[in-house]
Amino acid sequence: MIFIVSGVSGSGKSTVGALLSEKLGLPFYDADDFHPKSNIEKMASGTPLNDKDRVSWLRQLSLEIIEWEGNGGAVLACSALKEFYRQILIPIPPEKITWIILHGPKEVIAERMKKRKDHFFNANLLDSQFEIFEIPNYGWHFNIEDTSEDIVDRIVEKYELCAKKNRTP
């Protein structure tokens, strides 16, 4: 099973993803670690990525997802802001992917971003992320105003309930 934790920058994807991977005993990957240097430099300079910038990055991640699924699963933190991006990330049957969608007020996320240290994402780009974020009507949705621990506990609860009923999440 692949879990993809999605949302705008600062929504807690990496924190929730790392906690979830620990609870489920799956490896954790942060999509940011797969960005080419040119994307990182662009974001660090305050310039939003465009679709062209993201496509090769998303295709690389989709290849990784195939490998991770073949090795027993993983948790991936990835913004995947548009439906177009999410479709590129699905190289395996969709029922093998559980989408975790994190969303919440821009003010709360902006405040979190002010406290971040040593991250390449320029907080001035937050508006552009909210502008393009297409919140899907599928997946499991969580409000980021809840604690990461509470969110992860609810994810694990839902996952275990699905497993007991012998159905995909």
Brief overview:
The chain contains seven helices and five strands; from the N terminus they run E-H-E-H-H-E-H-E-H-H-E-H. It is α/β, with parallel strands linked by helices. It has a single domain, classed as Rossmann fold, CATH 3.40.50.
Question: Can you count the beta strands?
Answer: 5
Q: Mean pLDDT, rounded to whole units?
A: 89
CATH superfamily: P-loop containing nucleotide triphosphate hydrolases
**Strand order across the biggest sheet?**
2-3-1-4-5
Instruction: Please tell me the total number of domains.
Output: 1
CATH class: Alpha Beta
Per CATH, the architecture is 3-Layer(aba) Sandwich
Relative helix content:
40-55%
Explain this structure to me?
This protein has a five-stranded parallel β-sheet, with helices on both faces. The chain is globular and about 45 Å long. The protein has helices at 13-24, 37-44, 51-70, 83-88, 106-115, 126-132, 148-164; strands spanning 2-6, 28-30, 74-77, 97-103, 140-143. The protein has a single domain (2-164), classed as Rossmann fold (3-Layer(aba) Sandwich), CATH 3.40.50. It is built from seven helices and five strands. It is α/β, with parallel strands linked by helices and 169 residues long. Helix content is 47%, strand content 14%.
